[in-house]
From TrEMBL:
CDD domains: MFS_ExuT_GudP_like (cd17319). This is MFS transporter. The keyword Hydrolase does not apply. Gene3D superfamilies: MFS general substrate transporter like domains. It comes from Sphingomonas lenta. The lineage of its organism: Bacteria, Pseudomonadati, Pseudomonadota, Alphaproteobacteria, Sphingomonadales.
Length: 463
Protein backbone atom coordinates (compact mmCIF):
# COMPACT_ATOMS: atom_id res chain seq x y z
CA UNK A 1 0.00 0.00 0.00
CA UNK A 2 2.76 2.42 0.93
CA UNK A 3 4.64 1.72 -2.36
CA UNK A 4 1.58 2.39 -4.42
CA UNK A 5 0.97 5.72 -2.73
CA UNK A 6 4.62 6.67 -3.23
CA UNK A 7 4.42 5.88 -6.95
CA UNK A 8 1.36 8.05 -7.38
CA UNK A 9 3.07 10.86 -5.53
CA UNK A 10 6.12 10.58 -7.82
CA UNK A 11 3.95 10.69 -10.92
CA UNK A 12 2.28 13.82 -9.60
CA UNK A 13 5.64 15.56 -9.07
CA UNK A 14 6.98 14.57 -12.51
CA UNK A 15 3.86 15.46 -14.44
CA UNK A 16 3.14 18.78 -12.69
CA UNK A 17 5.49 20.84 -14.95
CA UNK A 18 4.12 19.12 -18.03
CA UNK A 19 0.57 19.91 -17.01
CA UNK A 20 1.19 23.56 -17.75
CA UNK A 21 1.09 22.73 -21.46
CA UNK A 22 -2.37 22.55 -22.94
CA UNK A 23 -1.93 19.25 -24.77
CA UNK A 24 -0.90 17.19 -21.73
CA UNK A 25 -3.47 18.62 -19.29
CA UNK A 26 -6.00 15.82 -19.74
CA UNK A 27 -3.28 13.14 -19.48
CA UNK A 28 -2.09 14.68 -16.25
CA UNK A 29 -5.58 14.59 -14.79
CA UNK A 30 -6.04 10.92 -15.59
CA UNK A 31 -2.68 10.03 -14.01
CA UNK A 32 -3.10 12.05 -10.85
CA UNK A 33 -6.64 11.11 -9.81
CA UNK A 34 -7.24 7.42 -10.46
CA UNK A 35 -10.20 7.13 -8.06
CA UNK A 36 -10.14 3.37 -8.02
CA UNK A 37 -6.59 3.17 -6.67
CA UNK A 38 -6.39 6.14 -4.29
CA UNK A 39 -9.06 6.16 -1.61
CA UNK A 40 -10.08 9.53 -0.22
CA UNK A 41 -8.59 9.67 3.30
CA UNK A 42 -11.15 12.15 4.64
CA UNK A 43 -14.25 10.08 3.78
CA UNK A 44 -15.01 7.44 6.43
CA UNK A 45 -16.84 4.28 5.38
CA UNK A 46 -20.61 4.52 5.84
CA UNK A 47 -22.09 2.89 8.90
CA UNK A 48 -23.97 -0.33 8.26
CA UNK A 49 -26.79 1.06 10.42
CA UNK A 50 -27.41 4.10 8.19
CA UNK A 51 -30.11 3.43 5.57
CA UNK A 52 -29.40 4.77 2.09
CA UNK A 53 -32.15 5.67 -0.39
CA UNK A 54 -33.29 2.65 -2.38
CA UNK A 55 -31.15 0.21 -0.38
CA UNK A 56 -32.58 -2.51 1.91
CA UNK A 57 -32.99 -1.45 5.51
CA UNK A 58 -30.05 -2.53 7.71
CA UNK A 59 -30.49 -5.37 10.18
CA UNK A 60 -30.30 -2.93 13.07
CA UNK A 61 -33.37 -1.10 11.78
CA UNK A 62 -35.29 -4.38 11.52
CA UNK A 63 -34.27 -5.15 15.10
CA UNK A 64 -35.67 -1.78 16.21
CA UNK A 65 -38.92 -2.45 14.34
CA UNK A 66 -39.16 -5.93 15.92
CA UNK A 67 -38.64 -4.53 19.42
CA UNK A 68 -41.24 -1.83 18.80
CA UNK A 69 -43.68 -4.55 17.71
CA UNK A 70 -43.01 -6.52 20.90
CA UNK A 71 -43.50 -3.34 22.92
CA UNK A 72 -46.90 -2.61 21.36
CA UNK A 73 -47.99 -6.22 21.78
CA UNK A 74 -47.05 -6.32 25.48
CA UNK A 75 -48.53 -2.86 26.03
CA UNK A 76 -52.02 -3.99 25.03
CA UNK A 77 -51.66 -7.41 26.64
CA UNK A 78 -51.01 -5.76 30.00
CA UNK A 79 -53.79 -3.24 29.41
CA UNK A 80 -56.39 -5.94 28.73
CA UNK A 81 -55.56 -8.05 31.79
CA UNK A 82 -58.00 -6.20 34.05
CA UNK A 83 -61.00 -6.50 31.71
CA UNK A 84 -60.34 -10.20 31.05
CA UNK A 85 -60.07 -10.95 34.78
CA UNK A 86 -62.98 -8.66 35.72
CA UNK A 87 -65.22 -11.44 37.07
CA UNK A 88 -62.38 -13.01 39.06
CA UNK A 89 -61.23 -9.71 40.55
CA UNK A 90 -64.79 -8.68 41.48
CA UNK A 91 -65.04 -11.75 43.70
CA UNK A 92 -61.53 -11.28 45.14
CA UNK A 93 -61.84 -7.57 45.99
CA UNK A 94 -65.65 -7.47 46.37
CA UNK A 95 -66.44 -4.53 44.06
CA UNK A 96 -69.38 -3.89 41.73
CA UNK A 97 -69.61 -2.26 38.30
CA UNK A 98 -69.20 1.18 39.88
CA UNK A 99 -65.92 0.01 41.37
CA UNK A 100 -64.90 -1.33 37.98
CA UNK A 101 -65.68 2.08 36.43
CA UNK A 102 -63.39 3.60 39.05
CA UNK A 103 -60.58 1.28 37.96
CA UNK A 104 -61.12 2.30 34.33
CA UNK A 105 -60.99 5.98 35.30
CA UNK A 106 -57.84 5.34 37.35
CA UNK A 107 -56.22 4.13 34.13
CA UNK A 108 -57.68 6.61 31.63
CA UNK A 109 -57.14 9.93 33.44
CA UNK A 110 -53.35 9.61 33.80
CA UNK A 111 -53.27 7.96 30.36
CA UNK A 112 -54.74 11.07 28.71
CA UNK A 113 -52.53 13.45 30.71
CA UNK A 114 -49.36 11.49 30.09
CA UNK A 115 -49.98 11.35 26.34
CA UNK A 116 -49.02 15.03 26.35
CA UNK A 117 -46.39 14.89 29.09
CA UNK A 118 -44.88 11.74 27.63
CA UNK A 119 -44.46 13.45 24.27
CA UNK A 120 -42.54 16.27 25.93
CA UNK A 121 -40.32 13.75 27.75
CA UNK A 122 -39.54 11.95 24.50
CA UNK A 123 -38.68 15.18 22.68
CA UNK A 124 -36.39 16.14 25.54
CA UNK A 125 -34.58 12.85 26.19
CA UNK A 126 -35.00 10.85 22.99
CA UNK A 127 -36.47 7.41 22.45
CA UNK A 128 -33.73 5.35 24.10
CA UNK A 129 -34.05 6.61 27.67
CA UNK A 130 -37.74 7.49 27.57
CA UNK A 131 -38.89 4.20 26.04
CA UNK A 132 -36.79 2.21 28.50
CA UNK A 133 -38.33 4.09 31.44
CA UNK A 134 -41.87 3.78 30.09
CA UNK A 135 -41.62 0.02 29.44
CA UNK A 136 -39.98 -0.64 32.81
CA UNK A 137 -42.53 1.52 34.65
CA UNK A 138 -45.63 -0.06 33.16
CA UNK A 139 -44.14 -3.53 33.66
CA UNK A 140 -43.57 -2.81 37.35
CA UNK A 141 -47.10 -1.40 37.55
CA UNK A 142 -48.57 -4.54 36.00
CA UNK A 143 -46.65 -6.75 38.41
CA UNK A 144 -47.81 -4.59 41.33
CA UNK A 145 -51.38 -5.25 40.22
CA UNK A 146 -50.71 -8.92 40.83
CA UNK A 147 -49.45 -8.11 44.33
CA UNK A 148 -52.39 -5.85 45.26
CA UNK A 149 -54.22 -6.63 48.48
CA UNK A 150 -57.03 -4.10 48.13
CA UNK A 151 -59.06 -2.27 45.50
CA UNK A 152 -57.16 0.93 46.27
CA UNK A 153 -53.81 -0.75 45.64
CA UNK A 154 -55.11 -2.22 42.40
CA UNK A 155 -56.34 1.23 41.35
CA UNK A 156 -52.94 2.74 42.13
CA UNK A 157 -51.21 0.11 40.00
CA UNK A 158 -53.61 0.81 37.13
CA UNK A 159 -52.95 4.55 37.39
CA UNK A 160 -49.19 3.98 37.06
CA UNK A 161 -49.86 1.58 34.18
CA UNK A 162 -51.92 4.19 32.32
CA UNK A 163 -49.36 6.94 32.85
CA UNK A 164 -46.45 4.82 31.59
CA UNK A 165 -48.25 3.17 28.69
CA UNK A 166 -49.33 6.49 27.17
CA UNK A 167 -45.76 7.72 26.78
CA UNK A 168 -44.87 4.67 24.71
CA UNK A 169 -46.64 5.88 21.57
CA UNK A 170 -44.84 9.24 21.21
CA UNK A 171 -41.63 7.24 21.75
CA UNK A 172 -42.64 4.98 18.84
CA UNK A 173 -42.84 8.09 16.66
CA UNK A 174 -39.40 9.37 17.71
CA UNK A 175 -37.76 5.96 17.25
CA UNK A 176 -39.11 5.50 13.72
CA UNK A 177 -38.07 9.02 12.70
CA UNK A 178 -34.59 8.47 14.15
CA UNK A 179 -33.99 5.10 12.49
CA UNK A 180 -36.02 4.95 9.26
CA UNK A 181 -35.66 7.24 6.19
CA UNK A 182 -38.72 9.19 5.02
CA UNK A 183 -39.49 6.98 2.03
CA UNK A 184 -39.75 3.89 4.29
CA UNK A 185 -41.44 5.35 7.39
CA UNK A 186 -45.06 4.63 6.53
CA UNK A 187 -44.24 0.98 5.87
CA UNK A 188 -42.19 0.68 9.08
CA UNK A 189 -44.96 2.32 11.11
CA UNK A 190 -47.54 0.05 9.49
CA UNK A 191 -45.55 -3.00 10.60
CA UNK A 192 -45.45 -1.74 14.19
CA UNK A 193 -49.04 -0.51 14.45
CA UNK A 194 -50.76 -3.96 14.28
CA UNK A 195 -48.83 -5.01 17.38
CA UNK A 196 -51.42 -3.40 19.64
CA UNK A 197 -54.26 -5.08 17.74
CA UNK A 198 -52.62 -8.48 17.98
CA UNK A 199 -51.89 -7.87 21.66
CA UNK A 200 -55.57 -7.22 22.29
CA UNK A 201 -56.62 -10.26 20.23
CA UNK A 202 -54.10 -12.55 21.93
CA UNK A 203 -54.81 -11.29 25.44
CA UNK A 204 -57.93 -13.38 26.26
CA UNK A 205 -56.41 -16.82 25.59
CA UNK A 206 -52.99 -15.89 27.01
CA UNK A 207 -54.33 -14.32 30.21
CA UNK A 208 -56.78 -17.20 30.66
CA UNK A 209 -53.96 -19.75 30.28
CA UNK A 210 -51.72 -17.89 32.73
CA UNK A 211 -54.56 -17.68 35.24
CA UNK A 212 -55.29 -21.40 34.98
CA UNK A 213 -51.64 -22.38 35.40
CA UNK A 214 -50.32 -19.64 37.71
CA UNK A 215 -53.40 -18.01 39.34
CA UNK A 216 -54.69 -14.53 38.56
CA UNK A 217 -51.70 -12.96 40.32
CA UNK A 218 -49.32 -14.75 38.00
CA UNK A 219 -51.27 -13.40 35.01
CA UNK A 220 -50.21 -9.90 36.14
CA UNK A 221 -46.69 -10.69 37.38
CA UNK A 222 -45.24 -12.82 34.56
CA UNK A 223 -45.95 -10.28 31.77
CA UNK A 224 -44.45 -7.65 34.08
CA UNK A 225 -41.21 -9.63 34.32
CA UNK A 226 -41.14 -10.06 30.53
CA UNK A 227 -41.60 -6.31 30.18
CA UNK A 228 -38.52 -5.61 32.30
CA UNK A 229 -36.49 -7.88 30.02
CA UNK A 230 -37.89 -6.02 27.01
CA UNK A 231 -36.89 -2.67 28.55
CA UNK A 232 -33.35 -3.96 28.99
CA UNK A 233 -33.23 -5.14 25.36
CA UNK A 234 -34.44 -1.75 24.14
CA UNK A 235 -31.79 0.09 26.16
CA UNK A 236 -28.99 -1.84 24.47
CA UNK A 237 -30.54 -1.85 20.97
CA UNK A 238 -31.52 1.81 20.57
CA UNK A 239 -28.00 3.22 20.24
CA UNK A 240 -26.50 5.17 17.37
CA UNK A 241 -29.70 6.08 15.52
CA UNK A 242 -28.72 7.83 12.24
CA UNK A 243 -30.93 10.90 12.72
CA UNK A 244 -30.78 11.19 16.52
CA UNK A 245 -27.70 13.42 16.68
CA UNK A 246 -29.19 15.86 14.17
CA UNK A 247 -32.47 16.00 16.09
CA UNK A 248 -30.64 16.65 19.36
CA UNK A 249 -28.49 19.38 17.79
CA UNK A 250 -31.64 21.23 16.73
CA UNK A 251 -32.59 21.46 20.41
CA UNK A 252 -35.81 20.58 22.21
CA UNK A 253 -38.69 22.90 21.34
CA UNK A 254 -40.70 24.64 24.03
CA UNK A 255 -44.27 23.50 24.51
CA UNK A 256 -45.38 26.95 23.38
CA UNK A 257 -43.64 26.37 20.04
CA UNK A 258 -45.49 23.08 19.68
CA UNK A 259 -48.84 24.73 20.40
CA UNK A 260 -48.13 27.55 17.93
CA UNK A 261 -47.72 25.08 15.05
CA UNK A 262 -50.94 25.76 13.12
CA UNK A 263 -50.64 22.63 10.95
CA UNK A 264 -50.71 20.52 14.11
CA UNK A 265 -54.09 21.88 15.15
CA UNK A 266 -55.66 20.86 11.88
CA UNK A 267 -54.65 17.26 12.59
CA UNK A 268 -55.74 17.59 16.23
CA UNK A 269 -59.19 18.82 15.18
CA UNK A 270 -59.55 16.13 12.52
CA UNK A 271 -58.53 13.32 14.86
CA UNK A 272 -60.70 14.76 17.63
CA UNK A 273 -63.67 14.48 15.28
CA UNK A 274 -62.86 11.02 13.92
CA UNK A 275 -61.40 9.13 16.90
CA UNK A 276 -64.80 8.67 18.62
CA UNK A 277 -65.76 6.30 15.78
CA UNK A 278 -62.93 3.96 16.75
CA UNK A 279 -63.56 4.20 20.48
CA UNK A 280 -67.24 3.45 19.93
CA UNK A 281 -66.36 0.36 17.90
CA UNK A 282 -63.80 -0.69 20.50
CA UNK A 283 -66.19 -0.49 23.46
CA UNK A 284 -69.64 -1.08 21.95
CA UNK A 285 -69.40 -3.40 18.93
CA UNK A 286 -68.77 -6.58 20.97
CA UNK A 287 -71.93 -5.93 22.98
CA UNK A 288 -73.86 -5.02 19.82
CA UNK A 289 -72.97 -8.33 18.18
CA UNK A 290 -74.02 -10.27 21.27
CA UNK A 291 -77.21 -8.34 22.02
CA UNK A 292 -78.53 -7.70 18.50
CA UNK A 293 -77.17 -10.66 16.52
CA UNK A 294 -77.24 -13.23 19.33
CA UNK A 295 -73.56 -14.19 19.38
CA UNK A 296 -72.32 -16.16 22.36
CA UNK A 297 -69.03 -15.24 24.01
CA UNK A 298 -67.34 -18.17 22.25
CA UNK A 299 -68.75 -17.10 18.87
CA UNK A 300 -67.64 -13.54 19.48
CA UNK A 301 -64.13 -14.76 20.18
CA UNK A 302 -64.15 -16.78 16.98
CA UNK A 303 -65.00 -13.81 14.71
CA UNK A 304 -64.04 -10.75 16.76
CA UNK A 305 -60.50 -10.66 15.41
CA UNK A 306 -61.56 -10.45 11.75
CA UNK A 307 -62.12 -6.65 11.43
CA UNK A 308 -58.90 -5.56 13.16
CA UNK A 309 -56.59 -8.11 11.54
CA UNK A 310 -58.08 -7.43 8.09
CA UNK A 311 -57.64 -3.70 8.64
CA UNK A 312 -54.01 -4.19 9.67
CA UNK A 313 -53.19 -6.12 6.48
CA UNK A 314 -54.87 -3.51 4.27
CA UNK A 315 -53.12 -0.65 6.06
CA UNK A 316 -49.69 -2.28 5.65
CA UNK A 317 -50.34 -2.51 1.91
CA UNK A 318 -51.54 1.11 1.82
CA UNK A 319 -48.44 2.25 3.70
CA UNK A 320 -46.20 0.49 1.19
CA UNK A 321 -47.98 2.23 -1.68
CA UNK A 322 -47.58 5.70 -0.14
CA UNK A 323 -43.90 5.01 0.53
CA UNK A 324 -43.49 4.08 -3.13
CA UNK A 325 -45.04 7.41 -4.13
CA UNK A 326 -42.61 9.28 -1.90
CA UNK A 327 -39.65 7.26 -3.23
CA UNK A 328 -40.67 8.21 -6.79
CA UNK A 329 -40.44 11.87 -5.87
CA UNK A 330 -44.11 12.64 -5.20
CA UNK A 331 -44.94 15.17 -2.52
CA UNK A 332 -44.70 13.37 0.88
CA UNK A 333 -47.53 15.27 2.56
CA UNK A 334 -49.95 14.77 -0.33
CA UNK A 335 -49.02 11.09 -0.39
CA UNK A 336 -49.69 10.64 3.33
CA UNK A 337 -53.05 12.43 3.07
CA UNK A 338 -54.27 9.59 0.84
CA UNK A 339 -54.63 7.53 4.05
CA UNK A 340 -57.16 10.02 5.37
CA UNK A 341 -59.09 10.60 2.15
CA UNK A 342 -59.48 6.84 1.63
CA UNK A 343 -60.78 6.40 5.17
CA UNK A 344 -63.24 9.26 4.73
CA UNK A 345 -64.68 7.55 1.64
CA UNK A 346 -65.11 4.20 3.43
CA UNK A 347 -66.41 5.31 6.84
CA UNK A 348 -69.97 6.41 5.87
CA UNK A 349 -70.91 2.83 5.01
CA UNK A 350 -71.10 2.25 8.77
CA UNK A 351 -74.53 3.90 8.73
CA UNK A 352 -75.89 0.67 7.23
CA UNK A 353 -74.75 -1.53 10.12
CA UNK A 354 -78.14 -1.83 11.81
CA UNK A 355 -79.68 -2.88 8.46
CA UNK A 356 -77.38 -5.90 8.08
CA UNK A 357 -79.55 -9.00 7.57
CA UNK A 358 -77.02 -11.44 9.01
CA UNK A 359 -73.68 -11.78 10.77
CA UNK A 360 -71.61 -11.96 7.56
CA UNK A 361 -72.92 -8.63 6.26
CA UNK A 362 -72.58 -7.01 9.69
CA UNK A 363 -68.96 -8.16 9.95
CA UNK A 364 -68.25 -6.84 6.46
CA UNK A 365 -69.62 -3.40 7.33
CA UNK A 366 -67.82 -3.33 10.68
CA UNK A 367 -64.58 -4.37 8.96
CA UNK A 368 -64.88 -1.57 6.39
CA UNK A 369 -65.32 1.04 9.14
CA UNK A 370 -62.43 -0.50 11.07
CA UNK A 371 -60.25 -0.16 7.97
CA UNK A 372 -61.26 3.52 7.74
CA UNK A 373 -60.34 4.14 11.38
CA UNK A 374 -57.04 2.30 11.10
CA UNK A 375 -56.09 4.21 7.93
CA UNK A 376 -56.36 7.40 9.96
CA UNK A 377 -54.32 5.97 12.83
CA UNK A 378 -51.68 4.51 10.50
CA UNK A 379 -51.47 7.72 8.48
CA UNK A 380 -50.98 10.13 11.38
CA UNK A 381 -47.40 9.12 12.22
CA UNK A 382 -45.98 9.38 8.66
CA UNK A 383 -47.87 12.65 8.07
CA UNK A 384 -46.42 14.26 11.20
CA UNK A 385 -42.95 12.95 10.39
CA UNK A 386 -43.03 14.56 6.94
CA UNK A 387 -44.89 17.73 7.89
CA UNK A 388 -43.45 18.86 11.24
CA UNK A 389 -39.88 19.30 12.53
CA UNK A 390 -38.52 16.10 14.08
CA UNK A 391 -37.79 17.83 17.39
CA UNK A 392 -41.51 18.44 18.09
CA UNK A 393 -42.93 15.23 16.59
CA UNK A 394 -43.31 13.29 19.82
CA UNK A 395 -45.00 16.23 21.57
CA UNK A 396 -47.32 16.72 18.60
CA UNK A 397 -48.18 13.03 18.58
CA UNK A 398 -48.94 13.20 22.30
CA UNK A 399 -51.29 16.17 21.91
CA UNK A 400 -53.18 14.40 19.12
CA UNK A 401 -53.48 11.16 21.09
CA UNK A 402 -54.70 12.92 24.23
CA UNK A 403 -57.29 14.95 22.35
CA UNK A 404 -58.57 11.93 20.42
CA UNK A 405 -58.84 9.83 23.57
CA UNK A 406 -60.72 12.65 25.33
CA UNK A 407 -63.33 13.07 22.62
CA UNK A 408 -63.63 9.29 22.42
CA UNK A 409 -64.43 9.09 26.11
CA UNK A 410 -66.97 11.92 25.84
CA UNK A 411 -68.80 10.11 23.06
CA UNK A 412 -68.83 6.87 25.01
CA UNK A 413 -70.38 8.60 28.01
CA UNK A 414 -73.08 10.00 25.70
CA UNK A 415 -73.59 6.81 23.68
CA UNK A 416 -75.37 4.88 26.44
CA UNK A 417 -78.30 7.30 26.93
CA UNK A 418 -78.62 7.88 23.16
CA UNK A 419 -78.80 4.14 22.45
CA UNK A 420 -81.33 3.63 25.25
CA UNK A 421 -83.61 6.41 24.01
CA UNK A 422 -83.10 6.41 20.23
CA UNK A 423 -81.38 3.15 19.36
CA UNK A 424 -78.16 2.11 17.65
CA UNK A 425 -79.24 3.39 14.21
CA UNK A 426 -78.98 7.04 15.29
CA UNK A 427 -75.48 6.52 16.70
CA UNK A 428 -74.22 4.65 13.63
CA UNK A 429 -75.73 7.30 11.36
CA UNK A 430 -74.08 10.14 13.26
CA UNK A 431 -70.70 8.41 13.38
CA UNK A 432 -70.82 7.87 9.61
CA UNK A 433 -70.50 11.63 9.09
CA UNK A 434 -67.47 12.23 11.28
CA UNK A 435 -64.66 11.02 9.01
CA UNK A 436 -65.82 13.02 5.96
CA UNK A 437 -66.16 16.16 8.10
CA UNK A 438 -62.73 15.51 9.65
CA UNK A 439 -61.22 15.01 6.17
CA UNK A 440 -62.59 18.41 5.13
CA UNK A 441 -61.01 19.98 8.22
CA UNK A 442 -57.72 18.30 7.35
CA UNK A 443 -57.87 19.52 3.76
CA UNK A 444 -58.62 23.11 4.81
CA UNK A 445 -55.88 23.17 7.46
CA UNK A 446 -53.13 21.55 5.40
CA UNK A 447 -53.76 21.54 1.65
CA UNK A 448 -55.60 24.85 1.39
CA UNK A 449 -53.13 26.46 3.80
CA UNK A 450 -50.18 25.22 1.72
CA UNK A 451 -51.75 26.67 -1.42
CA UNK A 452 -52.28 30.04 0.24
CA UNK A 453 -48.69 29.97 1.49
CA UNK A 454 -47.42 29.14 -2.01
CA UNK A 455 -49.50 31.96 -3.54
CA UNK A 456 -47.90 34.42 -1.10
CA UNK A 457 -44.45 33.10 -1.99
CA UNK A 458 -43.68 32.04 1.58
CA UNK A 459 -41.41 29.00 2.23
CA UNK A 460 -43.18 25.82 3.34
CA UNK A 461 -41.48 24.13 6.27
CA UNK A 462 -41.32 20.37 6.06
CA UNK A 463 -40.08 18.07 8.81
Amino acid sequence: MFGARGSVGAIAVIVRPLSETRGLRSLTTSLIVPSSSVPHPARPPPSSDVPTPGAPLPRKVWLIVALLFCTGFLNYLDRQTLSILKATLKSVFDFDDSGYSTLIAAFMVPYIIMYVVGGRIVDRFGSRLSMTVFIASWSVANALGGLAQSLGQLGGARALLGAAEAGTFPAFQRAIISWVPSERRAFAMSLVAPSTTLGAVAAPPLIAALTLHLSWRGAFILPGVLGLLLALAWWFADRGAPAEAEIRESGAASFGEVLRERRLWGVVAARGLSDPVWYFHLFWIPGYLQERLGLSLAQLGAVGWIPTVTASVICIAAAHLTDQRVARGRDPISSRLLFFYSGAVLAPIGALTTLAPNLAVALLLITIVTVACQLWFFGTGPLLADMLPARINASAFGVIGAFGASTGLILNFAAGPIIEQLGYAVVFGGLALLHPIAALVLWLSIVADRRRTADRGEPQAVG
